[in-house]
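Record pair follows.
FIRST:
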Amino acid sequence: MALIIFTQQLARFMPVPQLVTHAATLRTALDELAAADPRLGGYVLDDQGRLRANVVAFIDGQRCRDRALLDDPLRPDSTIHILQALSGG
């Protein structure tokens, strides 16, 4: 099962469990997340179902390809990291 891991910065605002999924794509995994925990899902996905601007997803060390489609494939042993996007100068 693929593992979803959240950044610890998010733990300041809500519980951030590690989650497991049988999903075949990032979209399916994040939709399952939003259904299971709407508050956490709302942090990750906007009202159009896209990755929020302040969130980045990495699958097995590679940044997801499309923030709207989220169609990146997952392997059964994939690790998904959900991070806050950082900016600044």
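SECOND:
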Amino acid sequence: MLSYAIIFLIIALIAGAFGFFGVAGTAATIAKVLFVIFLILFVISLIRGRSV
């Protein structure tokens, strides 16, 4: 999940550098959503791992 977020972040940076701002914005939004999902799943796994 985190690797997909990093890939979309790199796509957004490259697209922004070349002037494709629509693609860059979309890729950045996808990267943010994936990163938030990763953080939520990470926190859940930490909580469940400590309680067992």
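COMMENT: The mean pLDDT is 89.
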